[in-house]
Amino acid sequence: MSAIVTGEGQEAAALLERTREAVHPELRRSVESLPGGMRRVAMYHFGWEQADGTPAEGSPGKAIRPALVLAAAQALQGLGGAGPVDHAVRAAVAVELAHNFTLLHDDVIDKDVRRRGRATAWTVFGTPDAIITGDAMMALAQRLLADDPHPAAAAASSRLSACLIELCAGQQADCAFEQRRDVSLDECLTMAAAKTGALLGCACALGALYAGAGPEEVDAMDTFGREAGLAFQLIDDLIGIWGDPGHTGKSAGADLVARKKSLPVVAALTSGTAAGRQLADLYAGPMTGDDVRRAADAVERAGGRDWAQAQAADRMGRAVQQLSRAVPDLGAAGGLLSLAEFVTRRTR
Predict the structure, then answer these.
(1) What is the pLDDT of residue 2?
(2) Are strands 118-119 and 114-115 parallel, antiparallel or unpaired?
(3) What integer pLDDT is reported at residue 254 of this predicted model?
(4) CA distance 208 to 218
(5) Residue 239 neighbours by CB under 8 Å, 6+ apart
(6) Which long-range contacts (CB under 8 A, 24 or more apart) does 78-87 make?
(7) In angstroms, rounded to a whole number, what is the distance separating the alpha carbons of residues 105 and 75?
(8) Would you tell me the crossing angle of helices 8-32 and 36-45 to the nearest 10 degrees?
(9) What separation in angstroms does the CA of 318 have from each of 74, 313, 322, 323, 338?
(10) pTM for this predicted structure
């Protein structure tokens, strides 16, 4: 893949910037349509306002998922990374709203207190308001598609609904794993594919639908996104253990403190090694700062870090195979490839 994509970091950054310019105005209009209290929570969550309602200069996020929608539409229309796909902006906004529905709920479930460098919405406005605002974002996403006159909108709405059900099932499994000590690696991979891969796959599929692609191309794009999404989750799990808090906006080792059954952790726990057994003992009780450092070391010594990195590379290889089914000339899919490289090569 490196032979196909050169300078992927700059290309992805430029694509994400173009996506933000295209998507954020419509995204903000949608959020501003929410009634009073929910609007305030949502505007804070996206970084547009402070908790007291005064303007803020925060970032609504990287816009990876809406960028996948637009890049997929461009690729299937043979436009490469530069063609106009304004007709797919509503679908891109719908995906971003759905993603932020999950973020608001995840922060509550995981008791995360920091996101994008500041306090999470539930810690500022309370759990009920954060959950309700997340629900409203999901409804906004569906309303955008329901009101969209594009001929693919109905199919896109149906696909997004199915994706969100799958995503919720993945989140439920993730929560259940925290109460179990016998989670298998296959179970964990299935959970991650649903929780993370499903929405990235849906984003790519929606872009293909809006490009007028046929069922086989749409399904191939969905699978491309799912495989790339699993690679994304593997890297995200690594960052959750070894990421720099100055860049992630979260505490060091946050996933270990929460004793999450992330992919590298489960790989270590099921490794049959002495380090894996040490990790299991640490996961049996609450962790202090020293425990978190020991747990991270145990994951690495048990092979969890190396396994996750190798799996991420393998999943990206599978993703490119699927992409070539939908876009045989991968030169037309430069945007998608650069985004995939960007999310799987990040280190923080």
Answers:
(1) 40
(2) antiparallel
(3) 81
(4) 5
(5) 248, 346, 347, 348
(6) 78/332, 79/332, 80/331, 80/332, 80/334, 80/335, 81/11, 81/15, 81/334, 81/335, 81/338, 85/207, 85/210, 85/211, 86/22, 87/150, 87/210
(7) 33
(8) 170
(9) 21, 9, 6, 9, 15
(10) 0.91
What is the rounded distance in angstroms from the CA atom of residue 280 to the CA atom of residue 12? 39
How confident is the model at residue 9, as a pLDDT? Answer: 78
Chain mean position to CA 344? 12
Q: Note the pLDDT tens digit of each residue in 7-53.
A: 557 889 999 999 999 999 999 999 999 999 999 999 999 999 999 99
Which single residue is written with the structure tokens 């990235």?
200
Report the alpha-carbon distance of residue 227 to residue 313 in Å, rounded.
10
**Residue 331: its pLDDT value, please?**
87
Pick from 68, 55, 26, 109: nearest CA to 210: 68
Closest CA to 215 of 291, 148, 155: 155
Would you call 115 helix, strand, or coil by DSSP? strand
Q: pLDDT below 70 — which residues of the chain?
A: 1-8, 79-84, 246-252, 346-348
Question: In 3D, which of 108, 272, 109, 274 has the Cα closest to residue 177?
Answer: 109
